[in-house]
Amino acid sequence: MFPMLCRSILLLSLYFAVSANDESSSPFSFVVLSDIHSFTELSFKPFDDTLSVWIQGKKILKNIKDNYGGGKFVVMPGDGASYGDTPTANFVTRLGGNLSDNEAVYKGGVNCHSSTKALFRSA
């Protein structure tokens, strides 16, 4: 998973820093990371900072922040997770087995998105 994360963040990402130099505004920076696809595991183990994707992602994101700017605004067009041909029943099972198919898919998406935001904040 680590090579996929590195490739996704480093090769498929675009970084833009926009600075306004007039006196009426302060510098503003943002980061655009497109089609990362590597945060899938966060759907099933939200906020787990022991996962490889969290540990490696935090290092990479910290490096981006340290070398290019904070990125107070992050845009992630495309997918943060890739479920491919994952049967819906797997969502239900991996999320405890007590949800409907729709609830499990929704919860997996919310988990992934919320955990991704927490990962960015932690870096």
Structural class: alpha+beta
Poorly predicted runs of 5 or more residues: 10-22
Secondary-structure element order, as H and E?
Answer: HEEHEHH
Which of globular, elongated, flat, extended, rod-shaped describes the shape?
elongated
Please state roughly what percent of the residues sit in beta strands, choosing from under 5%, 5-15%, 15-25%, 25-35%, 35-45% or over 45%.
5-15%
| Gyration radius over CA | 16 Å
Sheet with the most strands, sense and barrel status: 3 strands, mixed
Residues in helices, as a percent range = 40-55%
Please report the distance between the alpha carbons of the first and last residues. Answer: 19 Å
How many H/I helices? Answer: 4
Summarize the SSE layout with pairings.
Elements: H1 2-11, E1 13-18, E2 28-33, H2 52-68, E3 73-75, H3 88-94, H4 101-122
Parallel strand pairs: 2-3
Antiparallel strand pairs: 1-2
Helix pairs in contact: 1-2, 3-4
Keywords:
single chain; elongated; 123 residues; alpha+beta; three-stranded mixed β-sheet; 12% strand
Describe this structure in words.
The structure is a single chain. The two termini are 19 Å apart. The protein is an alpha+beta fold and 123 residues long. The protein is 46% helix and 12% strand. Helix 1 packs parallel to helix 2 (52-68) and helix 3 (88-94) crosses helix 4 (101-122). The model is unreliable at 10-22 (pLDDT under 50). It is built from four helices and three strands. Strands 1-2-3 form a three-stranded mixed beta sheet.
